[in-house]
Amino acid sequence: MRTRPSPKILRKPCFALVAKAIRVGHDHGMKSLISLILMFACSSAQAGNRLELGAGLAASSFSTTPDSPGLKGHSGFTAGARFDMDLGGIFSLEPGIGYVPKGFSSGTFDQVVHYLDIPVMVKARMPKFGLFTPFVAVGPGLGYEVTTYASVLVGMVIVKNFDLMMNFAAGVEASFIPKIPVFFRVGYSLGLLNVIDQDSNPGLEAKTRAFLITTGVSIPLEF
Questions:
Q1: Same domain, 88 and 73
Q2: Out of 58, 68, 151, 219, which could bridge 110 as a Cys pair, Cβ 3.0 to 4.6 Å?
Q3: Are residues 16 and 104 in the same domain?
Q4: Nearest residue to 50 via CA among 212, 184, 181, 187
Q5: How far apart are CA 188 and CA 167, in angstroms?
Q6: Are residues 184 and 103 in the same domain?
Q7: Do residues 192 and 160 touch, judged by C-beta distance below 8 A?
Q8: Are residues 129 and 57 part of one domain?
Q9: What is the rounded CA–CA span in Å between residue 57 and residue 182?
Q10: pTM for this one?
């Protein structure tokens, strides 16, 4: 038996758009794909959900085995976006995507791996005091290597395309602007996988580490 969306739901413009896409489509597979995409967009656009846009500083390093005492870290610009999806109570789900450079240097040699990090975190907001709302967040993430820069190609360390991280964050939201809070956030990304390609560097192990300090705005998603 085929069920129809509730008329109450369909009165919301976003869900009405989903229903229209279902009616006018002809290919069943394509209709299902379009419906899933639109339903995700709609669920992200209900009351209490937000889009966070931020930028700041990433201070990264590689933890190596065997240990490399002369290895130094790298600092660079980071930026990204997150959906803050209300789960009820103090909790929300935070899927996101961000550019995070992770690198190292040794003597005159520098190498930076440019990653797209895709974290999925659970955030808990603390009780509000005045204009400020503290929060903490934790969750896993996937890193994808977009490109790698090395100051000398001969010495470049070949890294794998993917990394898996555990992410931790804490910060505060401030309601200086009505309905559009700004936030200050400090995060730590703990790489869980050996990112070194073993075919080119057998026996060398390295895991990524990154401190992220960002600030930005939290935009309500409602239509």
A1: yes
A2: 151
A3: no
A4: 181
A5: 6
A6: yes
A7: no
A8: yes
A9: 17
A10: 0.77
pLDDT in tens, 133-159: 999 999 999 999 999 999 887 778 889
- Residue 82: how many other CB atoms lie within 10 Å: 25
Rounded Cα distance, 189 and 66, in Å: 21
Residues 7 and 76 in one domain: no
Which among 141, 138, 127, 144 is positioned nearest to 187, based on CA atoms? 138
Length of the chain: 223
Q: What's the domain range around 114?
A: 50-220
One pLDDT digit (tens) per residue for the chain, 223 residues: 444 444 444 445 555 555 555 555 555 555 555 555 555 555 555 557 999 999 999 999 999 988 888 899 999 999 999 999 999 899 999 999 999 999 999 888 999 999 999 999 999 999 999 999 999 999 999 999 999 999 887 778 889 999 999 999 999 999 888 788 999 999 999 999 999 998 888 888 999 999 999 999 999 986 4
20 lies in the same domain as 62: no
We report the CATH number of the domain holding residue 103 as 2.40.160.20
Amino acid at the residue 112? V
* Count of the separate structural domains present in the chain: 2
Burial call 130-168: b when 16+ CB within 10 Å, e when fewer: eeebebebebebebebeeeeeeeeeeebebeeebebebe
